[in-house]
Amino acid sequence: MSTKAAFLALVVAVHGAVLSSSDISLITERCAQGSQLSWELGTRSQALLSLTHSPYSLFNSSPLPPPTVPPPGLLTDVFSIANETVANLSNPGSIQPLVPQDESTADPASIGIAVLLANRTGQGHNGTNYAGAATGQLYFLYSSQVPKTSDGAFSHRLDQLQLWFVVVVVIPSSWLNPVQERLHCHGSALSRLLRCSYGK
What is the mean pLDDT of residues 118-146? Predict the structure, then answer.
Protein backbone atom coordinates (compact mmCIF):
# COMPACT_ATOMS: atom_id res chain seq x y z
CA MET A 1 0.00 0.00 0.00
CA SER A 2 1.43 3.38 -1.00
CA THR A 3 1.70 6.25 1.47
CA LYS A 4 -1.01 8.23 -0.33
CA ALA A 5 -3.33 5.21 -0.31
CA ALA A 6 -2.65 4.70 3.40
CA PHE A 7 -3.50 8.35 4.15
CA LEU A 8 -6.68 8.15 2.12
CA ALA A 9 -7.68 4.93 3.89
CA LEU A 10 -6.93 6.45 7.31
CA VAL A 11 -9.05 9.50 6.52
CA VAL A 12 -11.86 7.21 5.36
CA ALA A 13 -11.52 5.18 8.58
CA VAL A 14 -11.68 8.32 10.69
CA HIS A 15 -14.85 9.48 8.98
CA GLY A 16 -16.87 6.39 9.71
CA ALA A 17 -16.21 3.83 7.01
CA VAL A 18 -16.57 0.27 8.23
CA LEU A 19 -13.05 -1.13 8.49
CA SER A 20 -11.88 -3.90 10.76
CA SER A 21 -9.58 -3.04 13.65
CA SER A 22 -6.78 -4.99 11.92
CA ASP A 23 -7.27 -2.87 8.76
CA ILE A 24 -7.13 0.33 10.81
CA SER A 25 -3.99 -0.90 12.61
CA LEU A 26 -2.30 -1.70 9.28
CA ILE A 27 -3.27 1.67 7.79
CA THR A 28 -2.06 3.51 10.91
CA GLU A 29 1.24 1.63 10.79
CA ARG A 30 1.77 2.40 7.09
CA CYS A 31 1.04 6.08 7.68
CA ALA A 32 3.61 6.14 10.48
CA GLN A 33 6.18 4.51 8.20
CA GLY A 34 5.49 6.80 5.26
CA SER A 35 4.98 10.19 6.90
CA GLN A 36 7.87 12.41 5.89
CA LEU A 37 6.50 15.54 4.24
CA SER A 38 4.95 18.26 6.37
CA TRP A 39 1.43 17.73 5.00
CA GLU A 40 1.74 14.00 5.67
CA LEU A 41 2.78 14.62 9.28
CA GLY A 42 -0.02 17.13 9.78
CA THR A 43 -2.60 14.82 8.20
CA ARG A 44 -1.37 11.91 10.29
CA SER A 45 -1.54 13.88 13.54
CA GLN A 46 -5.09 15.07 12.79
CA ALA A 47 -6.21 11.59 11.76
CA LEU A 48 -4.74 10.11 14.95
CA LEU A 49 -6.52 12.70 17.06
CA SER A 50 -9.81 11.94 15.34
CA LEU A 51 -9.36 8.18 15.31
CA THR A 52 -8.03 7.37 18.76
CA HIS A 53 -7.83 10.55 20.79
CA SER A 54 -11.34 11.91 20.41
CA PRO A 55 -11.29 14.23 23.47
CA TYR A 56 -8.50 16.18 21.72
CA SER A 57 -9.95 16.13 18.22
CA LEU A 58 -11.20 19.34 16.65
CA PHE A 59 -14.38 17.53 15.69
CA ASN A 60 -15.72 16.28 19.00
CA SER A 61 -18.42 17.55 21.31
CA SER A 62 -16.42 17.57 24.55
CA PRO A 63 -16.07 20.81 26.52
CA LEU A 64 -13.48 23.36 25.50
CA PRO A 65 -10.65 23.98 25.83
CA PRO A 66 -9.16 20.47 25.73
CA PRO A 67 -7.83 19.00 29.00
CA THR A 68 -4.32 19.98 30.08
CA VAL A 69 -3.47 16.52 31.41
CA PRO A 70 -4.03 13.67 28.95
CA PRO A 71 -4.23 10.07 30.16
CA PRO A 72 -0.77 8.42 30.02
CA GLY A 73 0.20 7.34 26.53
CA LEU A 74 -2.90 8.77 24.86
CA LEU A 75 -1.17 11.37 22.68
CA THR A 76 2.27 9.74 22.36
CA ASP A 77 2.29 9.57 18.55
CA VAL A 78 0.94 13.11 18.19
CA PHE A 79 3.50 14.47 20.67
CA SER A 80 6.24 12.61 18.82
CA ILE A 81 5.33 14.46 15.61
CA ALA A 82 5.26 17.80 17.46
CA ASN A 83 8.53 17.13 19.29
CA GLU A 84 10.44 16.06 16.18
CA THR A 85 9.12 19.05 14.23
CA VAL A 86 10.10 21.60 16.87
CA ALA A 87 13.43 19.88 17.60
CA ASN A 88 14.39 20.36 13.93
CA LEU A 89 13.95 24.15 14.16
CA SER A 90 17.17 26.11 14.66
CA ASN A 91 15.38 28.82 16.68
CA PRO A 92 11.80 27.88 17.69
CA GLY A 93 11.05 31.42 18.86
CA SER A 94 11.75 33.11 15.52
CA ILE A 95 9.33 33.94 12.73
CA GLN A 96 9.46 30.87 10.51
CA PRO A 97 7.30 27.97 9.35
CA LEU A 98 7.31 24.77 11.40
CA VAL A 99 9.21 23.15 8.51
CA PRO A 100 11.46 25.91 7.11
CA GLN A 101 12.61 24.03 3.97
CA ASP A 102 9.05 23.48 2.75
CA GLU A 103 8.00 25.26 -0.46
CA SER A 104 4.40 25.51 0.76
CA THR A 105 3.11 28.17 3.11
CA ALA A 106 0.27 25.99 4.38
CA ASP A 107 1.66 22.47 4.68
CA PRO A 108 3.96 23.15 7.67
CA ALA A 109 1.06 24.84 9.49
CA SER A 110 -0.85 21.54 9.30
CA ILE A 111 1.37 20.33 12.15
CA GLY A 112 0.23 23.33 14.22
CA ILE A 113 -2.51 21.56 16.17
CA ALA A 114 -0.06 18.86 17.33
CA VAL A 115 2.38 21.56 18.43
CA LEU A 116 -0.37 23.55 20.20
CA LEU A 117 -1.57 20.42 22.04
CA ALA A 118 1.99 19.58 23.10
CA ASN A 119 2.27 23.09 24.52
CA ARG A 120 -1.17 22.99 26.18
CA THR A 121 -0.46 19.69 27.92
CA GLY A 122 2.91 20.77 29.26
CA GLN A 123 5.15 18.69 27.05
CA GLY A 124 7.68 21.54 26.95
CA HIS A 125 9.05 20.65 30.38
CA ASN A 126 12.10 19.20 28.61
CA GLY A 127 12.94 22.64 27.25
CA THR A 128 11.17 22.27 23.91
CA ASN A 129 9.69 25.63 22.96
CA TYR A 130 6.33 24.59 21.51
CA ALA A 131 4.74 27.97 22.17
CA GLY A 132 7.60 29.78 20.42
CA ALA A 133 7.42 27.44 17.42
CA ALA A 134 3.65 27.85 17.07
CA THR A 135 3.93 31.62 17.47
CA GLY A 136 6.69 31.73 14.85
CA GLN A 137 4.50 29.77 12.42
CA LEU A 138 1.54 32.07 13.02
CA TYR A 139 3.57 35.24 12.51
CA PHE A 140 5.18 33.71 9.42
CA LEU A 141 1.76 33.24 7.81
CA TYR A 142 1.00 36.93 8.26
CA SER A 143 4.51 38.10 7.30
CA SER A 144 5.51 39.64 3.99
CA GLN A 145 7.35 36.39 3.16
CA VAL A 146 4.01 34.73 2.33
CA PRO A 147 2.39 35.94 -0.92
CA LYS A 148 -1.20 37.10 -0.43
CA THR A 149 -3.98 38.41 -2.62
CA SER A 150 -5.04 42.05 -2.28
CA ASP A 151 -7.78 40.97 0.14
CA GLY A 152 -5.39 38.89 2.27
CA ALA A 153 -5.86 35.29 1.11
CA PHE A 154 -2.74 33.18 1.69
CA SER A 155 -0.90 31.69 -1.26
CA HIS A 156 -0.25 27.97 -0.98
CA ARG A 157 3.20 28.40 -2.54
CA LEU A 158 6.07 30.59 -1.39
CA ASP A 159 7.62 31.22 -4.80
CA GLN A 160 4.47 32.61 -6.45
CA LEU A 161 0.89 33.54 -5.67
CA GLN A 162 -1.25 30.41 -6.00
CA LEU A 163 -4.62 29.97 -4.36
CA TRP A 164 -5.39 26.38 -3.38
CA PHE A 165 -8.54 25.33 -1.57
CA VAL A 166 -6.43 23.08 0.66
CA VAL A 167 -5.06 26.16 2.47
CA VAL A 168 -8.33 26.52 4.41
CA VAL A 169 -8.15 22.83 5.36
CA VAL A 170 -4.45 22.60 6.22
CA ILE A 171 -3.87 25.78 8.23
CA PRO A 172 -5.54 25.63 11.64
CA SER A 173 -8.56 27.87 11.28
CA SER A 174 -7.72 29.62 14.53
CA TRP A 175 -4.74 31.03 12.65
CA LEU A 176 -6.82 32.09 9.64
CA ASN A 177 -9.36 34.10 11.65
CA PRO A 178 -8.70 34.46 15.39
CA VAL A 179 -12.38 35.07 16.20
CA GLN A 180 -13.85 32.07 14.45
CA GLU A 181 -16.03 29.19 15.59
CA ARG A 182 -15.14 26.19 17.70
CA LEU A 183 -11.80 25.46 16.01
CA HIS A 184 -10.44 28.69 17.45
CA CYS A 185 -10.34 27.13 20.89
CA HIS A 186 -7.16 25.29 20.02
CA GLY A 187 -5.59 28.73 20.03
CA SER A 188 -6.04 28.73 23.80
CA ALA A 189 -2.76 26.83 23.93
CA LEU A 190 -1.15 30.19 23.19
CA SER A 191 -3.38 32.22 25.48
CA ARG A 192 -1.24 35.36 25.32
CA LEU A 193 -1.46 35.35 21.55
CA LEU A 194 -4.90 33.95 20.81
CA ARG A 195 -8.04 34.05 22.90
CA CYS A 196 -10.47 31.15 23.14
CA SER A 197 -13.99 32.04 22.15
CA TYR A 198 -16.74 29.51 21.74
CA GLY A 199 -18.81 30.51 18.77
CA LYS A 200 -18.66 34.00 17.34
Answer: 89
